[in-house]
Amino acid sequence: MTSPPGDGDRGGSPTEPRPLVCARCGARAEEPPPVTWTCSVENGVRRYFCEACARENLRAIEGRLDSEWW
After folding, report:
1. Per the confidence metrics, is the pTM higher than 0.90?
2. Helices and strands (H and E) in the chain: how many
3. Which domain of life is it from (predicted)?
């Protein structure tokens, strides 16, 4: 079985929850990601950010969006 594109190599099986790691601070959570976490696809790689990091960097995150998104 192969991973979906951009899913990275997080290991685990499809039936077991896999830990997610915040790409900025290293905080951990089980899949599925909490609704307060943010997901970003950068250079084809899916990255997750915890609530605290997402809040601290909201302007930078929004700054990368096309103006039609805001």
Report:
1. no
2. 2, 4
3. Bacteria
Alpha-carbon distances of 29 from 44, 49, 62, 67, rounded to whole Å: 22, 10, 24, 31
Matching residue, tokens 């997402």: 54
Give me the tens of pLDDT residue by residue for the chain, a chain 70 residues long: 344 444 444 455 556 667 899 999 999 998 888 999 988 888 899 999 999 998 888 777 777 776 676 5
Domain boundaries, the chain: 19-65
Rounded to whole angstroms, the Cα distance separating 24 from 26 reads 6
CB neighbours of residue 22 within 10 Å: 20
